[in-house]
Amino acid sequence: MAQRIYRILFFLFIAAGSIRLSAQTASSDIGVWVVASNLKETTLTEDGDDIDIAFDEDNGYGMSFNHFWTDRFSTELAAQTIHGDMSITSHFGGTPFTFDAGQLDALALTAIAQWHFNRAGRFSPYVGAGVARMSGDFEAIDDPDGLDSFDLESEIGLAANVGANIRLTESLFLAADFKYIPWSAVAEGDSSSDSLDIDPSLLSIGMKVRF
After folding, report:
1. What's the number of CA atoms in the CB half-sphere (13 Å) around residue 155?
2. Count helices and strands in the chain by DSSP H and E runs
């Protein structure tokens, strides 16, 4: 799977290089972002009883570099941080009991190919797809259940993207961006641990400077 994704990424940037040779003009932009994340809630069943895992997300931050090879096609490299306090609700014995388990901190590195609409206008939406590398760690809260702090295995997967740029001046843009990244997190070096589907959805608001 990883080799396939690397091949897709390699193809995207080779294609972008070929497009650039035929482009009359090209430009780039850099962006800074405030990132609001939404992490998937999961219900596990153990011995017939449900265990609910949920997150109280905190805002993160991000940076991006985007190069336009033509008026419509660009490639973006971005880094975005993800934070969330995990809570666990057990239903053993039929009585719900909720406790704070700890904090998840993660980093999403993405390489996205984007197709832009109405780039010359004040409002320019875009769609994109590419690959993401997810990594992070979980810092457990000390409790009687003996939860441990641990790093998470790095994982490379696919990413979907949609967003829009709003022109303020010739070189300054207000931007909104949404990314969805399927991610099954698993403890690093622990082959016996179960994976947890987190699947972050990242809504980012930022400013871009084009040059």
Report:
1. 23
2. 1, 12
Can you list the alpha helix ranges (DSSP code H) found in the chain? 2-22
CATH of the domain spanning 2-210, picked from 2.60.120.10, 2.40.160.20, 2.30.40.10, 3.30.70.1450: 2.40.160.20
| Contact between residue 51 and residue 43 where contact means Cβ atoms under 8 Å apart | yes
Reading the block at residue 137, the tokens are 């760690």
Per-residue pLDDT of the chain (211 residues; tens, 9 = 90+): 555 555 555 555 555 454 444 444 569 999 999 999 999 998 877 666 778 899 999 999 999 999 999 999 999 999 999 999 999 888 776 678 888 889 999 999 999 999 999 998 999 999 999 999 999 999 988 654 555 788 999 999 999 999 999 999 999 999 999 999 999 999 887 766 778 899 999 999 999 999 9
Residue with tokens 């609700």: 89
Nearest to 202 by CA among 92, 83, 118, 115: 83
Q: Rounded to an integer, what distance in angstroms lies between the CA atom of residue 188 and that of residue 193?
A: 9
What single-letter DSSP state applies at residue 94? G
